[in-house]
Write a structure and sequence with these properties.
Blueprint lengths: L9 H4 L9 E7 L5 E9 L9 H10 L4 E7 L12 H16 L3 E8 L4 E3 L29 H13 L1
Parallel strand pairs: 3-4
Antiparallel strand pairs: 1-2, 1-3, 4-5
């Protein structure tokens, strides 16, 4: 299946919509935006899921991914309010920059629950780095901003501590 917009991703997280704990998923895509595989990165508690950038990188490499979409749920949130937390914004920024340096392009981070979803791309959180057209996802500009694995580890610590 080809992914062209955030709504196309729902079938890949639908199974987890009613999950009682947060889950972190990754959707690997090839250069033509075709889905290679969906993988569960981690399962957490009702309001926390641990990141694992090394495992994420292993999966993306194994899947020979070019693009990826990060997905996680908010089971504890009001079903009508599924927006990102401050921690989600920090993680999205860190993952976006870190994986660009590794050669993987993050198209979106989708937060979902049983009733709705929030797309970072659709809400202009990622578009500033995007060659944007009206037809949906497009290749993100590659640039090096100096974020290292150490910075991502700092974000992991921060994410757990906030």
């Amino acid at each position: 299946m080809k992914i062209e917009k955030a709504q196309d991703v729902r079938n890949y997280y639908k199974y987890y919509e009613q999950h009682n704990n947060e889950v972190l998923l990754i959707l690997s895509l090839d250069k033509d935006m075709n889905v290679i595989q969906r993988n569960l990165i981690n399962e957490g508690t009702e309001d926390f899921v641990k990141l694992d950038s090394k495992y994420t990188e292993e999966i993306l490499t194994k899947n020979n991914a070019y693009y990826f979409i990060l997905m996680h749920n908010h089971p504890y949130k009001d079903v009508h309010c599924v927006g990102p937390s401050f921690k989600d914004n920090i993680v999205t920024c860190a993952y976006n920059h870190f994986f660009k340096q590794k050669g993987f392009i993050m198209l979106d981070h989708i937060i979902f629950n049983s009733e709705s979803f929030f797309s970072y791309y659709n809400n202009d959180f990622l578009k500033e780095y995007t060659k944007f057209t009206e037809n949906g996802y497009r290749e993100l500009d590659k640039y090096n901003d100096g974020l290292s694995e150490h910075h991502v580890d700092d974000v992991h610590y921060y994410y757990q501590g906030v």
